[in-house]
Amino acid sequence: MKKIIAFGASSSVNSINKQFASFVANKISNSEPVILDLNDFEMPIYSEDRERLEGIPSLAYDFKAILKNADGIIISFAEHNGSYSAAFKNIFDWISRIEKVVWFNKPMLLLATSDGEKGASSVLETAYSRMSYNNSKHIFKFSLPRFSDNFDKIKGILDNNLKEDLENKLYGFQKLLS
Ligand SMILES: Cc1cc2nc3c(=O)[nH]c(=O)nc-3n(C[C@H](O)[C@H](O)[C@H](O)COP(=O)(O)O)c2cc1C
């Protein structure tokens, strides 16, 4: 059984990205998906002064330990003003202070969705370009536009082209897990 860590990069209780990440993680065969909630990793806003005075919070180490244990990582990004949600960015900043390799070069499937036409593709590109640095063969990305129209809790993605695109990315991601 492969251990897949998945989460929506959002702190919203009704996060569509959390829903989407969880849906995709559950499609992976022979896997044990672990769905994280970023609210369980809320820390003070990162600052260099705070780090110097108080050190790195233990929650940042907890988050890293979970990543280290994973065979693969799935993140679905909420887009806030064209970029990461503050909740995600804060965790990213803290964990990046622990060691240089933030995501352990694990296979990653980066997702993003919104109700807009662009499907949060700006934040997805930002994340992809950052996280694929030195890890480009182990990382896939997929954006789902117009979530309310294109996604059904039971049927999944309704549009055939988008569905096929995600299936191809999932196939590639799963191959890296074996
Ligand atoms: C502060 C804020 C900024 C936002 N900025 C964008 C944006 O730049 N692009 C976009 O497509 N949606 C934007 N949205 C709408 C989000 O895509 C929408 O709230 C979505 O549901 C967020 O994902 P989540 O439900 O997983 O949290 C913004 C929402 C908030 C609250």
Provide an overview of this structure:
There is one protein chain. This protein has 178 residues and is an alpha/beta fold. The protein has a single domain (2-177), classed as Flavodoxin domain (Rossmann fold), CATH 3.40.50.360. Helices cover 40% and strands 20% of the residues. The chain has helices at 16-25, 48-54, 58-68, 86-95, 121-131, 147-150, 160-177; strands spanning 2-9, 31-36, 72-77, 108-113, 139-144, 151-152, 156-157. The chain is globular, with a radius of gyration of 16 Å. The N and C termini lie close together (10 Å). The mean pLDDT is 96. The structure holds flavin mononucleotide (FMN). Flavin mononucleotide is lined by residues 8, 10, 12, 15-17, 78-82, 114, 116, 118, 120.
Give the N-terminus to C-terminus distance in angstroms. 10 Å
Q: What is the count of DSSP helices, taking H or I runs of 4+ residues?
A: 7
- Tell me the strand percentage band: 15-25%
Which runs of at least 5 residues are low in confidence (pLDDT < 50)? none
One letter per element, helices H and strands E, the order comes to: EHEHHEHEHEHEEH
Q: What integer value in Å does the Rg equal? A: 16 Å
Using the coordinates above, name the CATH class: Alpha Beta
Characterize the largest beta sheet: strand count, sense, and whether it forms a barrel. Answer: 5 strands, parallel
> What is the CATH architecture descriptor?
3-Layer(aba) Sandwich
CATH topological fold name: Rossmann fold
| Widest β-sheet, arrangement of strands | 2-1-3-4-5
Structure class: alpha/beta
Mean pLDDT: 96
At the fourth CATH level, what is the homologous superfamily?
Flavodoxin domain
Q: What compounds are bound to the protein?
A: flavin mononucleotide
